[in-house]
Write a structure and sequence with these properties.
With about 350 residues, this protein is of the alpha/beta class. The chain contains 13 helices and 14 strands. It folds into two domains: about 240 residues, P-loop containing nucleotide triphosphate hydrolases (Rossmann fold); about 70 residues, Alpha-Beta Plaits (2-Layer Sandwich). The strands form three sheets. The protein has a six-stranded mixed sheet, with helices on both faces. A four-stranded antiparallel sheet has the order 2-1-4-5. A four-stranded antiparallel sheet has the order 12-13-11-14. The two termini are about 15 Å apart.
Length: about 350
């Protein structure tokens, strides 16, 4: 949640707007023998949504916790809103809002009381705390439940309340650590809209996520992290362009059909072809665009191989991620979350 004070917020925000909002250089952090961050370099411009995309265990949460001054780095430097996270932690906390992987709300308080409590901790007067709470409850479509205890809220409502609490003090930089994990599609889209509103209002947002669609939809820039290192950085279109042109993708009903399709396609599906045996899918580059698809259809027809679906599409972030890391964005838990005493 946010920890802003009311006093120097406007001056600090004006100063930080002339700088990069987040600057990370050669950041390292280990937990015993596990290297969580291995020399991370990262920059986010003021007013930008930067998605940090990676599997569990890649170091996303570790990085967020260091930037939010909840964890100390072993080496390297990090600045948020122009302030050093190690030597100026108080200044950093006055500029940021944090929404973690689990909603940090008091189940015994109502939605309104939760937000008013945070506002008063941020040194707002009672009248202003009430006004901010009601504004945010309305913004996140929680007014109808404002008088109910948070313990009765659904998972999506709790996440929205937690995000509202992190915005009480109008932070210049917002850290969202996998905010939509476990949410239903409707709640996820509601949070996506909230993130867009934050960016439109001028806040800098660092969003960690495992969801490729989420990064593609929300972020102006995407940094891919794997095994504690940034392995790619750019806009979604820039990352996709690294894979070249179109991709032919087919789906077979069973593994035997997939094998027959591979045999029929021959040299069309060699080199950078991606075979997913679990889903019985095959994807391969289409350098000639639709002509490659037509050639594939002819070969399948001649071999009398009937597939469930086949088509041509542009490369996706899924293709990019698999090309860069060799696996889907899923894996072991982040050491910062799993290791006792990491906080």
């Amino acid at each position: 949640m946010a920890t802003n004070s009311n006093g120097s917020r406007a001056t600090d925000a004006a100063t930080s707007s002339r700088r990069a909002a987040i600057e990370v250089s050669a950041l390292r952090k280990s937990f015993g023998a596990t290297m969580a961050l291995d020399g991370v370099d990262l920059v986010a411009e003021a007013g930008q949504v930067l998605a940090l995309l990676g599997p569990n265990g890649a170091g996303k949460t570790t990085l967020v916790r260091i930037l939010a001054t909840l964890l100390s780095a072993d080496a390297g430097t990090a600045r948020v809103a122009g302030y050093d996270v190690a030597s100026q932690a108080g200044r950093v906390r006055a500029m940021v809002g944090v929404t973690g992987q689990f909603a940090a709300v008091d189940d015994l308080l109502t939605g309104q009381e939760n937000l008013e409590m945070v506002a008063e901790l941020c040194h707002f007067g009672r009248r202003e705390a009430n006004r901010r709470a009601r504004d945010l409850l309305e913004r996140f479509e929680l007014m109808d439940a404002a008088g109910r205890r948070a313990g009765t809220y659904s998972g999506g409502m709790r996440r929205r309340l937690d995000l509202a609490a992190s915005l009480i003090a109008r932070p210049a930089v917002v850290f969202l650590d996998e905010p939509t994990t476990g949410l239903d599609p409707v709640s996820r889209r509601a949070l996506w809209d909230a993130v867009k509103d934050l960016a439109d209002a001028g806040a800098t947002v660092l969003l960690t996520t495992q969801y490729l669609e989420e990064a593609d939809r929300l972020a102006s820039r995407i940094a891919v992290i794997d095994r504690g290192r940034i392995i790619a950085d750019g806009s979604a279109s820039e990352l996709k362009s690294r894979l070249g042109g179109d991709v032919v993708e087919l789906e077979a009903g069973e593994s035997a059909v997939l094998d027959s399709a591979l045999a029929a396609l021959g040299d069309l599906a060699v080199g950078q072809a991606r075979v997913d045996r679990q889903a019985n899918r095959l994807a391969f580059p289409a350098p000639a665009g639709p002509a490659t698809l037509m050639a594939a259809l002819r070969r399948l027809d001649e071999a009398q191989v009937v597939v469930d679906d086949i088509g041509i599409r542009r490369p996706s972030l899924d293709d990019v991620f698999l090309s860069l890391t060799g696996h889907h964005p899923a894996g072991i838990a982040d050491p910062a979350t799993a290791t006792p005493g990491a906080r």
